[in-house]
Amino acid sequence: MKNEAIKVLQKKKKNILENWMKFQLTDDGLREDLMSNDELRAQSDELLNALVDTLNDANIEDAGSNDFDPVTDVLSAISISRAKQGYTPRETGAYVFSLKDALMDVLQQEIKDPHELYLHTMRIGKLIDNFSIYIFETFIKGREDVILRQTDEITEISTPVIQVWEGILALPIIGTLDSARTQVVMENLLQKIVESESSIAILDISGVPAVDSLVAQHLIKTVSATRLMGAECIISGIRPEIAQTVVHLGIDLTNVQTKSSLASALKTAFTMLQLQVTRQKLNNATNHN
Amino acid sequence: MDKIPILKMGKLLLVTIQVDLYDRLAEALEGDLVQMIDKTGAQGVLIDISAVNIIDSFMGRIIGNIATMSKILDAETVVVGMQPAVAITLVELGLPMKGVFSALNVERGMELLQAKIARK
């Protein structure tokens, strides 16, 4: 025998939809600017159909049941599309809650016995609450995906490798160095060394807020990898505070060439490549100072 | 079994590894190379690994061994053309290959070796 509430809901599907639409259209949060009423009706109809069709005695108590896959599919599609369209989480949540109101209304009209009514109302309420939680989860997951993508992009663009001279590369690192970022930095640097046939790389860490033993470890790894490739690595931009922490932490940087500024690192690089920078002697006739 | 050719160029030995190294091949290379250094009295060894895409700790150690053995036999070793991925792997494996000199390409490696031999 089918649960009475389910029978009622299946029979009164049309009424529920009308009711639900009425709730939505009279709600203050209606966003006619984002979605037309016809579209809204189609969306609501789809969700209601999916819900009523999958509902049976066995799964009414178990919102996690696989039977509800069609419903959750529809819900996640709605949630994601609404997140993209610019609905607030409150509006998306209110959408599902208004369905609950519509369902309750119909149940109230059809079931006369107060005890039965209470029982069914509780069950349906619980089910819809679970769906609301699901829709929020999907909403947040959609946002998190965006954040993750942006993090990746920042990592990608924040490690530019610059060729400052023929055979000399500079890599200004801005921001904290973690394992994932070191990997990107290292790969970019080594790739560029191969492409440009550079023999010296300057790693400028003046934009790194703090150096702890982990960051130092990452720096030493980068230097070792560069050496293995056959290039020399200079670390520049070491601020006094960083020098202090490095010594206090007992990190051994003696095998690494370190310079306080990018300028002095460049000077060292020039010396290593046997290059010299000289002031040009201006011809008196053309000197208009 | 494959064999990695060892070419003699004046005072130098040139080894270009064109295939991915497997353990037996690497061990054979080690033996051959030491024999060759002894036979020719070479003063430098240049190992080109630009075609090697995969390296493990064993290969890393073999290359390190070759460098140490050559050093004992009075020849310098330079490894050239290491791929970025290989360099990262070696560092992650904790094998910084002490005693092995590196250069970006064969040309630079030759220059480095010549300079080292001239200094002797």
Largest sheet properties of chain A: 5 strands, mixed
Category from helices, strands and their pairing of chain A: alpha/beta
What is the count of helical runs of chain B? 4
Biggest interface goes to: A-B, 19 and 20 residues
Helix content of chain A: 55-70%
Strand content of chain A: 5-15%
Broad shape of chain A:
elongated
Number of domains of chain B: 1
The helix/strand order of chain B is EEHEHEHEH
Percentage beta strand of chain B: 15-25%
Sheet with most strands of chain B:
5 strands, mixed
Q: How many beta-strand runs of chain A?
A: 5
Strand order of the largest sheet of chain A: 1-2-3-4-5
Structural class of chain B: alpha/beta
CATH architecture title of chain B: 2-Layer Sandwich
Poorly predicted ranges of chain A (pLDDT <50, ≥5 residues)? none
The CATH superfamily of chain B is identified as: STAS domain
Give the oligomer, counting copies of the same chain as homo and different chains as hetero: heterodimer
The level of helicity of chain B is 40-55%
Distance between the termini of chain A: 104 Å
Short description:
With 289 residues, chain A is of the alpha/beta class. Chain A has helices at residues 4-11, 13-26, 37-54, 69-85, 89-110, 114-157, 179-196, 213-229, 240-248, 262-272, and strands at residues 162-165, 168-174, 200-207, 232-236, 257-258.
Can you walk me through this structure?
- The complex is a heterodimer of chains A (about 290) and B (about 120).
- Chain A has about 290 residues and is of the alpha/beta class.
- Chain A is about 60% helix and about 10% strand.
- In chain A, helix 2 packs across helix 5, helix 3 packs antiparallel against helix 4 (about 70-85) and helix 5 (about 90-110) runs antiparallel to helix 6.
- Chain A starts with a helix and ends in a 17-residue tail after the last helix.
- With about 120 residues, chain B is α/β, with parallel strands linked by helices.
- Chain B has one domain (about 5-120): STAS domain (Transcription Regulator spoIIAA), CATH 3.30.750.
- Chain B contains four helices and five strands; from the N terminus they run E-E-H-E-H-E-H-E-H.
- Chain B has helices at about 25-40, 55-70, 85-90, 105-120, and strands spanning about 5-10, 10-15, 45-50, 75-80, 100-105.
- In chain B, strand 2, helix 1 (about 25-40) and strand 3 (about 45-50) form a beta-alpha-beta unit.
- The N and C termini of chain B lie far apart (about 40 Å).
- The model of chain B has no long low-confidence stretch (mean pLDDT about 90).
- The interface of A and B includes residues 183, 198, 221 and 231 of A.
